Fold:
Amino acid sequence: MAGMEQMRAGVLRGLAVFRWLAWIWMATVLALARGNLVAPLTAVALVVVALGVTVWLTVLLRSAPGRLVTAPVVGVEVGVAMALQLVDGFVYRAPHVFTSEQPLGVAWPIAAVLSAGVALGPAAGALTGGALGIARAISSTLNVQPVSDPWLGVLTPEQTLSLVTTTVMFALAGGIAGYAMGLLRAAERRVVEAERSVAALRTREEVARQLHDGVLQTLAVVERRADDPQLARLARDQERQLRTFLQAEPGTSEEGEHLATAVRAAAHRVENAYGNRIEVLVPDDLPELDAHVVAALTGAVGEALTNAGKHSGAGRVVVYAEPDELGGVFVSVRDDGRGFDPTAATAGLGLRRSVCDRVRDVGGEVEIASSPGRGTEVRLTVPDEAAGDATSTPP
Structure:
């Protein structure tokens, strides 16, 4: 939020500088054109009022900058700008407009248009600019033709086009100022959100590193060496809960979260049943998965974990998932158990049937790598067509 305040303060300071420079030029023009004035007191009074508004807004910039973007304060500035536009045609001798002479307000009313856009948005800025342009057109028309005469045919097409152009330019200035300010605010919000996300991620990584180096390792030692089964189970449960919290990636997609939750639930069941230590690693950039694909993968992973718990004698199992190079999903279940010889006729037969059938039914592939004494890894791959096909139906 501090960045947004600094950005807004910078814009308001720029407007204040523009307002002061415009007022100085307005006062200079008034002094140089005093010989053509028919109502000099009115002109001087309005320029003095504009000076008072300029000073007031400068004081607010220092003391209460938030008030500069409120409707009442902007309304005062717009009101004075409107008066300058309307009175211009009456304080000068005719014909004043459409000559080389500068209007009474010169550029000062543009500051009001920009303020309205910055404070109230592009629509308010455009409407304010249009209203000031129309006021200028009315004043110019009355300066060329007295009120007692009909207006029809007063202005030439070129003069009419000039007034319309002025009105459009005023409206564009207000609209663009509001639009640009909106873009700056949106960009600043995105930067702030990104900074918060990065800070949260760094904090999470630091906590995870400290917990992994201290608490998790201590719980693992307690679990392995505790003679009391209840103490060992409590240590294992606490270790699992901490790992689940630390492995939950911020910003995970809804479908990816669903797969991670289901796999962790399966791991929890196997841990409770067989006492293995299971670590689940699921990133935050998995492709979208249909519900039946998640169910198939979860079932296959559960079977692989059960096999590791019942038959392999594994002390540690790691479940790892990542997007593959072709846009699908790759899942690995690897244990440090006794392994087996894949060439044996019956070795791993149940594992192949229970895992392969589930994954192949959703268009995936299974590869089992194992050797005696070196553990087992079950590799599951679901291609892009199966992972992201929202119209698929369960087999």
